[in-house]
User: Which sequence fits this backbone?
């Protein structure tokens, strides 16, 4: 089946990469980098910083490939997202702290019914009010176009938990 072929393809590429094949490693990058980049960009809103973080994620992957055990495409994605989350944590540690939205602004916004919900910045602000877990479910589901099974794997939770968090977040 197509699914098996894709799995075998990525497994084969990972195996070749572990043996030092740089061309195979480039193929891993091409295969998964868009989804990782979408997630990072959704967290930083800065294209250049996101590209830098993406590069660091793949440098870490290259360094840790010899110990990496391929289980499935989803497990590889999960591993990369964990690396990305770690890099983002350090990214935020090094940045000046964001100023919290003050309560008056939030109340004013809720009272003002003129808000265009299609407005991306409005959505980002609303997303920012959610817990980190809920934010991650939404980002992975919509920015990275993941299935609930993939979201669960990346966040190391059960698929039903991913669905419940998604429902609550929405």
Assistant:
């Amino acid at each position: 089946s197509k699914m098996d072929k894709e799995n075998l393809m990525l497994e084969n590429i990972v195996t070749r990469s572990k043996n030092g094949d740089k061309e195979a490693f480039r193929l891993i990058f091409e295969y998964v980098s868009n989804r990782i980049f979408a997630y990072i960009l959704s967290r930083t809103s800065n294209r250049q910083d996101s590209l830098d973080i993406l590069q660091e994620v793949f440098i870490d992957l290259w360094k840790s490939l010899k110990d990496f055990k391929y289980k499935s495409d989803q497990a590889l994605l999960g591993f990369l997202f964990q690396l990305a989350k770690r890099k983002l944590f350090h990214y935020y540690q090094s940045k000046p702290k964001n100023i919290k939205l003050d309560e008056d602004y939030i109340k004013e916004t809720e009272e003002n019914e003129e808000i265009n919900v299609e407005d991306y910045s409005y959505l980002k602000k609303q997303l920012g009010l959610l817990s980190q877990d809920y934010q991650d479910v939404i980002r992975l589901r919509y920015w990275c176009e993941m299935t609930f099974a993939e979201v669960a794997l990346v966040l190391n939770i059960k698929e039903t938990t991913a669905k419940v968090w998604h429902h609550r977040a929405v």
